[in-house]
Every structure is written in structure tokens, then in C-alpha cells.
Amino acid sequence: MAVAQRFAGHGFAVTVGVGVAVSVAGVILVEYLALSRLLTAVTRWPLRRILIGIGVVMIAFSPVILINPDQIYDDLIAPSLVALWLSQLIVFAVYPRFAARHGRRAVPAWVLALAASAFTVYGLWTAIQNAQV
Which end of the chain is more exposed for a tag (fewer CB within 10 A), N or C? Predict the structure, then answer.
């Protein structure tokens, strides 16, 4: 917002700030829904119970996170990135099997899977290396 205000004025800075806030809220909502669907699939618990449980946990931990948000961010960014890269690696690694089940050609599927996996391994390696600083 500071850069937007410096170069384009207060009104644009407010617009940028609102856009960032809406974007962050959207990401939180999408993650909340994705986590609820994942837990429903894994545990076979009712969706309503899981939605309420995740909501309670999020609300309970919010005051703790607000005590020192910079430290929480610094502590959780590396595990979050490692989890992200590992989840992507799993998707890319099983893609050839998915392609074979759907009658797709094997060679392009393997080439895509290997290329994507290579980038993902690099991202994982970078996240781990930077976490050790």
C-alpha cells in the first residue's frame, strides 16, 4: 500500500489494500474448504462436524498467532513450503498412472511427470536449504 500511495495516491493505495485483504480471505476460505474435503475423504466423518471442528481450531489459535505474527510466520514458512512441494511431487509422480488409466499416451505423460518432478525437487531442495539459515 505504501508504494501504491507514494506513486498513485491514497485512493489507489486503499484499493490495493482492499484487494490484498480480499485475496488473503479468499485463500483462507479455499484452504478451509480443501482441508474439510480432505478430512472428510480420509476419515469418513460428516462434513458438518469437520467444518465446525476446523472452525473451532482456527478461532482458538487466532489469539495465539496474533501475539507475534512475524515469529509465527518465520517458524511456519519452511514446513509450509516443504508440505507444498511434497504434495505437488506426489501429484506429478502419479500422473503417468492417471494418464494410462485414461488411455493417454505414456511417453508424453512420463516426460511431463519427470520435468515437473525435477522442478518440484528443486523447489523442495531450495525450501529445505533456506530453512537451515
Answer: C
Of 28, 131, 34, nearest to 79 by C-alpha is: 131
pTM of the model: 0.64
In tens, the pLDDT along 47-70 reads: 999 999 999 998 998 898 889 888
Calpha distance 124→133 (Å, rounded): 15
Q: Which three cell numbers stand for residue 54?
A: 476446523
Question: Is the dihedral angle over the CA atoms 83, 88, 93, 94 positive or is it negative?
Answer: positive
